Amino acid sequence: MKFINVIQALPVENQPIEVVERKGIGHPDTIVDSIVDAISIELNKEYIRKFGGILHYNLDKALLAAGSSKPAFGGGIIEKPMLIIFGDRATTSLNGEAVDIDSLAKKVAKNWIKTNLRFLDVDNHIRFQSEIGKSAGNLSDIFKRKGGTFLGANDTSAAVGYAPLTKTERIVLGLERKLNSNEFKKQFPETGEDIKVMAVRIKNKLDITVSMAFLDRFIDSELSYFRKKSEVIDQIKSYLDESPFAGNYELHLNNLDVSGRGEDGLYLTVTGTSAESGDSGQVGRGNRVNGLISLVRPSGSEAAAGKNPVSHVGKIYNLLSFEIANSIYRRTDEVAEVYVWLVSRIGQPVNIPSNIAVQVIPKESSKENEIVNKVSKILEETLSESYLSEFINRLIEGKITVC
Description:
There is one protein chain. By secondary structure, the protein is of the alpha/beta class. The chain has a domain at 12-24 and 167-282: GMP Synthetase, Chain A, domain 3 (2-Layer Sandwich), CATH 3.30.300. It is 32% helix and 25% strand. The protein contains nine helices and 21 strands. Helix 7 (313-331) crosses helix 8. It is flat, with a radius of gyration of 23 Å.
């Protein structure tokens, strides 16, 4: 069933309250999401190489258990390594040929860490444990059934996407990306990758709190820490001063810091991530697929990271709903804001959602019938066999990020 609803309502941009969060690449939740999706991409390649197509798997259950560390001015130590536990299910063999998924998962995880976390030693700072089991028969059977171009959905699930991003959402996304950019890290190597940005907008004022791990090897004293922290604050203010909230924001960085308490009063880490001691991570607790956690927006409950890209609608519909919403917003001048819901029914081909709902907030003096006609055409296009086949191929190849 397809339903397009044009409503008179305030877009989030014009509402008085907005709360937006982003967890950076070194946050424990983002680490786990990113690793399991990197494993998913490599497993796609391995299945295609060995068997000519993707077999059943879902690797969206994983945990990063925090270790123990002792930061110290000039450089501390890791007392107990972190632990990443891989879980869920996958096809481990077909026609007598096996796939060593445990080894693949560990290899991909190590490569991802080496690429993205500068000071985390994969051989000494982290352990791996695989609890990936064999796929259930009824779910594996979906991949063996003959039919059309698309497999049946392996779950009854719902997803929602929206467009456009508000000013607050763009600021939060852009700030974390700036602070974790290669350029910034070269200028401020003492800043770690574990960054969280939380923004609260009340009417036209922005209250923004940034949590950023600092690396102890670059800090030789409290005085040094607070001096470097002040320099980072200046950089963040420079970014915010070029935003629509220039002159109307309040900034907090590492708000738990207290002078006079030595290393224990500061956000110091050995590796640049709180996962070394203070915080664990879990798939699905991080950013949504558009890179944000926006609390005034509707949100689905499915984690996209690690799910297979050909039958699991928790991945396909999560990402597709945002792609459709962005397409509607870009191509329909009359639209101020749009939401797209996609609902699957287990066993039904993934190109045929059981329900499609689009909610449009129009610009002033827009004609409802014109909006409905334009949205209907875009839905027909984005749910066509050719479009969806190309979209799924992008998921298979990892060309669309999930966090």
